[in-house]
Design goal:
Layout: E1 7-15, H1 19-29, E2 39-45, H2 52-62, E3 67-71, H3 78-88, E4 91-97, E5 102-103, H4 107-118, E6 122-130, H5 138-146, H6 150-157, E7 164-168, H7 169-175, H8 186-195, E8 201-212, H9 217-236, H10 266-293
Parallel strand pairs: 1-2, 1-4, 2-3, 6-8
Antiparallel strand pairs: 4-7, 5-8, 6-7
Helix pairs in contact: 1-2, 9-10
């Protein structure tokens, strides 16, 4: 029997209808400062209906030893797509990022070295938001200030977001795959599954990916609704230990999340307070209605 050659790392990218984003992330990943014969890139297409798969096929043609793709069209979930990629992966380390992210050229090197040299089970890398213009608009500010703080996730919640996560493959063999039925929060559940079993997760500032902030009301609304439904499903499965549903979300507050080194005027501060209260109420509404009307 001929066994496939094991390599150091497999990069897995779930994607659905995002040809432009996939083009950018693949362009970055094929140029990683990492030995080309020691890693692979797996595009996990989640049943795209546009020309996203054509991008994967093109890169497979130009980089046949480096890029491959798999298709998960039975379950509409980024975690199901990631699981399909995990099944095909040959690397000892699995590196996850998203189709709307751009990794730095030394991203894989930094994440791999951090995981190997520190002897840990998982490493969560830094996620830095990018904006359409030099300064964020109000929706970009709100999105970037409130989400994807990997250092906080690692230190306070015991997980790392899959936009920038490195995991030893044997962890999936030991603890199982992502929960494919989740549309959001699968990284939270998987990370806490491991850290509660005393596996070690560390933060690596040097492993950096850039992530565009949601720039419109509609984009932020869709993202927030998906997160709220994911929280409801996790709570229903008794797997949610943070951000519990509470009527206190309906009480107005003067607080809002802020970006460091980004001064804003009084009018924007007031608007951010209003937006923060609106989305807190929407989160309560979405979670409540999902729980009691599904």
């Amino acid at each position: 029997m001929i066994y496939p050659r094991l390599i150091k790392a497999s990069v897995i990218i779930p994607v659905y209808n995002n040809a432009e984003g996939l083009e950018k992330v693949l362009s970055s990943l094929v140029e990683q400062d990492f030995p080309k014969d020691e890693y692979e890139i797996i595009v996990a297409d989640n049943g795209s209906t546009d020309n996203t798969l054509d991008v994967a096929i093109k890169y497979r043609k130009y980089y046949p030893q480096l890029v491959q793709y798999v298709i998960e069209d039975k379950i509409q979930s980024s975690y199901a797509a990631r699981n399909k990629g995990i099944d095909q992966a040959k690397g000892d380390l699995l590196a996850f990022t998203d189709s709307d992210c751009i990794p730095e050229v030394n991203w894989l090197y930094q994440g791999y070295n951090s995981l190997i040299h520190k002897g840990v089970s998982m490493v969560a890398g830094r996620i830095e938001f990018t904006f359409t213009n030099s300064k964020p608009n109000i929706w970009e500010y709100f999105d970037a200030a409130g989400k994807l703080n990997q250092k906080s996730y690692v230190e306070n919640a015991g997980f790392g977001a899959t936009a920038n996560l490195f995991v030893r493959k044997k962890m999936f063999d030991k603890y199982g795959l992502f929960l494919s039925e989740l549309i959001s929060g699968g990284d939270y559940e998987f990370g806490r599954r491991l850290t509660k079993s005393r596996e070690i997760l560390q933060y690596c500032r040097g492993a950096l990916v850039y992530h565009p902030a949601r720039s419109t009301f509609r984009d932020k609304l869709l993202k927030s609704k998906r997160i709220a439904i994911g929280q409801s499903i996790l709570a229903e499965m008794d797997l949610l230990e943070h951000s519990q549903l509470s009527w206190r979300q309906l009480i107005p507050t003067k607080n809002y999340a802020s970006l460091s080194n980004n001064n804003i005027g009084l009018l924007k501060k007031i608007l951010l307070v209003l937006i923060n209260n609106l989305y807190s109420c929407l989160n309560f509404f979405w979670r409540y209605t999902y729980r009691y009307t599904k």
